[in-house]
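Ticket #4471: structure export looks truncated?
Reporter: QA, pipeline team
Priority: medium

Steps to reproduce: submit the single chain below to the structure queue and open the exported record.
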Amino acid sequence: MSPSISARAGSFAQVLRRVFTLAAPYFRSEEKWRARAMLLGIVALNLLFVYVAVLGNQWYGRFYDALQNKDSVVFWHEVGVFGWIAFANIAVQVLKFYVTQLLQLRWRAWMTRSYLSRWMADRTFYHLELARYAAKDSHTPDNPDQRIQEDMQIFTSATMTLSMGLLNAVVTLMSFIGLLWALSGSFSFSFHGTTYQVAGAMVWVALGYSIVGTAITHFIGRPLIGLNFRQQRYEADFRHHLVRVREYSEAIALDKGETVERERLELRFGDVLRNYLALIKQQKNLVTFTSFFGQAAVIFPFLVAGQQYFGGAFQLGHLMQISSAFGKVQESLSWFVDNYDSVAVWRATTDRLTSFDDGMRAHAEREDGLRRTPSAVLHTEDLAVALPNGTPLLAGAALAVKPGDSVLLQGPSGSGKSTLFRAFAGIWPFSTGRMQVPDNVAFMPQRPYVPDGKLRDALTYPHPAADFGDDQLRQALNDALLPDLAARLDDSDAWSQKLSGGEQQRLAIARVLLKKPAWLFADEITSALDAQAEGVLYQRLSDTVKAAGGAMVSIAHRAAVGDFHNQRWTLVPQQDGDAGGARYRLTTTAVQPAA
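Actual output as written to the record:
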């Protein structure tokens, strides 16, 4: 196990504390009374299941005594009794299965909705990804998609299964240990001429047998916790890269990158296979021992009590009762042995969910270093922007944009132009200072997000399509130079795959023309368009913003875009020690826009 995993694993009490932290919110939620009632019902059914098992043990004694005595009347009566016991056993198991599965389903649904809500709130999903790449340690949660989709299913299912199994083992132990004590009587042996009597001998034998088995199982199976933790991560990384190949299939095909991507996929799959092989080897060792342990437990009580039976101390039915009670006590005491593999998977899943929960909690409790207040203008004071690794890009920036302005932001590639836009949008956590920001604002990234589904939903995203009429939608598409799509509003497709880069940028522009924001921040939004289309669309965007009484700030490298702006901000590289230690300083210049 790696040091980071060992640090998270902690003591058994810490594991239980983490499980309680993850599980308790559901049983305190708005569904608490239904959840608690179902949980109590499952507990009651487990108790009833054990009671039926006790009746079965008593039946063993009567039935095998009837066989030994060749008493046909008692034999056929006990056959009928067995039918009722079997019916009760089946009914309890079916009902327990149904209620347990229903509670697991409702619990998973609640947890998924809760975690989705927290993950998507306050841009947590975005900030956690930034933190992951900036982190210096492995505690930063990875693959949140897997944790929400897969780990929650494993956690709720395993927690219910293991907790109810442990409860069943405890109740079974309490129910059968007294019975086994009474059935086994006392065991006598001589040592140095002195005879000793040991009461409840079979109980002590079962206890010693289980303690030894549990210790050996823990020694063999302990590495499974770390192996399962890593296996889930490697599987998620492999699946994530498969999805990326599908998303960027066209770019990979054009670059003839199939060989490279296959090698990368095989590298990630190699991690999956190597860890899984180590997991198999460890499980093989565990299965070898537990199989031997379970098989030996079948014959063990007969070896211990057989001599008394052949000596006439009791009848066959009594011996079968001892065997049955010993099996129940031994199984209860050996619950950890029988479930070690499941416990290892469950504990690894708990560690993963805990780190995810801690990451979201830390994000929710963070203090934002950039103070934002609403205003009719954009104004910054002492604005500082840094990279996730702490490298300062900009320091002490004082910027101002008022309604009617149009600003072009330029600078070398990698100078932080898009990062500055993220700070304006309030999504960049590595920024400090004070900022006044207007409302009714739209931010347009260079690569827009185009969801799959109906075209009308992609056009109005993130607003409901029902908020706009069909005529408005068609007009926006025509104004954005997408007349061929105006008749396809109800077509469903993977638009991010079907539309070219230029069409996707025009679709994003159509969204802005449709919603008519007053303030617009545009990041290379026409980089995939020809000069004529760029000029037409920039003019329409400029007219839209002016009509709404706002302003426009753009990032662009093409000189022609400057004709639509009356100010230019330029990020200028600095020598070490200049500009407060930042890599760039920002200069402002007034320009005369085109008529």
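Status: closed, not a bug. The export was complete when the record was re-opened. Leaving a note from the reviewer for reference: The longest helix spans residues 258-310.
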